[in-house]
Amino acid sequence: MTIDVPDNQPPMPLSPNEGTTRRIAVHGIMILLSALSIFPIYWMIVTSLRPENEIFSTLPWPSNPSLENYVFVLTRIPMLQMLVNTTIVATATAALQVLTGLLTAYALVRWRMRLAGLVHGLIALSWLVPFQVTMIPNYVLASRLGLLDTLTGLVVPNAVAAFAILLLYHSMRSFPTEILEAARIDGAKSWRILWQIVTPNMGAPIASLAIIAFISAWNEYFWPLLLSRKPENSVVQIGLQMFMTQEGNLWGPLMAAAALASLPILVIYLILQRHVIESFMKSGIR
Amino acid sequence: MLRRTTLKLMATLASVAMTPLGALAEMPAAIDKPVTISFYNYNLASASAGADATRELLAMFEKKFPNIKVETIAVPSNEIMSRVQADIVAGRQPDVAQLVFRDLIYIASDLGANALEDMVNPEELKAHLTGMIPQGLELGKVDGKTYGLAYTFSTPILYYNADLFKQAGLDPDNPPKTWTDVDAAGRAIKEKAGKNGFFPGAYGPVDGTFVYQAIVMSNGGKVRDGNKLTFADTNAADAVKMLRGMVESGAHAKIDVASPSDTFAAGNLGMFLYTSAVYGSYKKAAKDKFDLRMAPMPSFGEKPTAPTNSGSALYVFSKDPEKQRAAYELLKFLTSKEAYTVITSKIGYLPLRLDIVDDPNYLASWVKENPMFRANLKQLDHLTPNIAFPGPNYRQVEKMMMDSVREAVFGTGDPSAVLTAAQDEGQSLMP
Amino acid sequence: MTDIQADLARPLALARSPATEREQNVFTVLPWLYLAPALILLMMWTYVPLVQAFQLSFYQWNMLPTAPQRYVGLTNYQRLLALPEMRAALWNTLFYILGLFPMSVVIPLFVAIWTQDLTGRARTVYRALIFVPMIVAPVVAAVLWRWLLNEDQGLVTLGLEQLGFGRIGFLTDPKYALATLTWITGWKLIGFSTLLFSAANAGINPSYIEAARIDGATRWGIIRDLRLPLLSPTILLLSMMTILFGAQWSFAYINVLTNGGPLKSTTNIFYLLWEYGFQTLSAGWSSAAGMIAFAGFAVIAAGCLWLMKRFAVYDN
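^ inputs. structure came back:
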């Protein structure tokens, strides 16, 4: 897989000697950083493949790789159901954050309102409210709305994100005004302008936002922990937690569960990584 | 005023689903139409033997009472109390909950648990309680009434690694009896075997206060007396100083307070004082790796030990008489002879009905295969109730106490001064 | 080039909207319909609870409908501020933030500049790899590092012992625990920050560099006089994110790994809020702690925005 992220930097002219030394040093640093980044993941997978009596071994690869930990995880807790649930929750959260983000950003860009400053302030400030403060009131609210133990309950409180709105707002503001103006003169309604003109041209920011929202919804832990009542209605991070018991951690199954909880997202990342990185670079997150 | 109306609104909304407290209506003698009760349980929240055994028990129960459906809510043990309370706040009245003893007073006074004496007629209650260990029943009482029915139950026990004892030149058949012995053995293991000597499961986030209280009470101390905190008083403080002394001598390990279990299971800790409930999982972990043994908790010289209990009691919160009956049937079943046979043999908690231990219909064969379990049963004789804290800020007080104990044992300051400072501060939060 | 921080600054700067002037003084319902979903959800799930928390911070109440609410004025705040842990928590919050800077800003910035002339496949592979920690769940990261750093069985600990460093109690020694948690928090950020800096660096107009080079500027001179100033929006953005959210990011690790210990060495303001508020379900304490954290960071945010408006260089 090769990627050609547009890069308009001409390489520095270097003397041949300096070039080699520098290149080695650069590769050295990048290899070190890459190793630091993935070694724990590698170790997780290796540990998850170790049979129980080898669990504390430090060999780089298990002498008898075994899937017993995975079997244990899949039979002891409804892991597959949890993976399905997590996928639904993460997808819905990402979609809703994009949707509410687009609507809000569009309104702020398209109209000049007297209270725009206040609205903007409320949105930005909501980012700073610690979730520890709102958790209990939100739990009570979710309970009244009948959202306990439902996937909807895991999605709805996260359907709006200040980050999403601000990101889209910023990208939309750099959208050429003339095009909007032309469409308006042609008699296009604001709704149509949003979906047929603005949105199709915001592929990159929408993609990177969706990715970030999906990842963070997938990784969400504290809210599902509070809301979860039955394992089969819960998400993978809670599944992980079930192997950290009072009697100590069940390390083998815990690593297998961690691998199962991370692999889907790692695979999606590997397949899409070119787009992920590209959209990060193109979108306004700079 | 906006403030007051909002608060009132919150309170009203929260109380919509609640019927007023007060005299309880008589509950029916039997369940003749289908009823669903909720059961908050922490054993179900982990993928452990406890979860399997609990599921097995509930299946047995539902088979026996086809009209009663038990809806389980699985919450980890350190969160379960908050969850029960949050659900009461949200107007979802829980029916039965498995909760630990440290919250007893609060559960009775603030969460509105039902006293069994108020809910069940005296003969029926007496018939069920007969045969249960009286010291165990005593633990669930507040002001003479039973709010929590002792359910899963364990005491601190000294697990030790006989292989490390041998490596350190100690006699594994003669485990330490007093703290002086523990100190000596701990140092020997540290110096000769190069492994961690001793550690009590007393400082971690999930183990509450029972191991610490057992040590304190074995030295004649107490953590509180009425509404007065006494954990910095002489005997209690001396117990903590003893632990500090062992830290300084090297006998007491300095390991992650959240995971001593892992260290012991991996064979890197000589002696571990912790709940007898985890025997099952250590047995599995030690298999083919090291020789696991158990001994009663150590004493202060000639003083008798005072093992307190960890574990949980069952509380009933139902207000509806039908549900109360269903809840009480669940309680009865979960503390029956059949249930304790499962609980003891599959999880490792103590049977609160001692007559089943040698009964061939129940535990006799299992106890024969696991003779070491008797060390655990022996401690039941001098079982001492774990002391819970009263008042609305009891959790904060308990936290201040445990923080100061950690500071006194592992820190550099004077242990007495550390404990006294925390005691003074905690006292201002007592009722 | 505009940036997120510029958007954050918007409420202070107001206006400058590209919309037409025609509708200026006419109140229209339409925009509010667009805004409604987000505003309603924000009100429901964030602001109403926040206002309630503000009120509750003056009461002693365990939230139970049957329990009385007692107005206690500022007592909750006084008690919290008097906690011996509070001082530790505030200092630690500062340490977390400062400790994260090398990993969220300094190292990524220099790596991005230094590796800019890597091309092709190698760069692709590196970028793909260093981004991985960003997508790992905090709980998974916590578990992985606990496993690697365990004092008796951890690979890293054993490795360092082989190298003659002795056994380091990464999570058990108060001397190291805070640094360990900061490292774990930072581990998840390095790749992400590097990527952002690389993107920003790649976006610098090459004609500037060319011009400087023709003028005889040295490599370091170009970095100092051109690249760093042009990267300043990204530097400021990531710095502000670190300051505002660094302590919050470390919360998951404190909760899973140390519970604030050993000896309170790793607790921070958010964990204190969690322990004394959420876990004890005393609405007064938790609300007061929440207010302290919220107000504190809101003031800091305002300060950051002011600084940013003064010092950021935009390539307009």
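Chain B touches chain C through 46 residues (CB under 8 Å). Chain B is about 45% helix and 15% strand.
thumbs up if we can close this ticket
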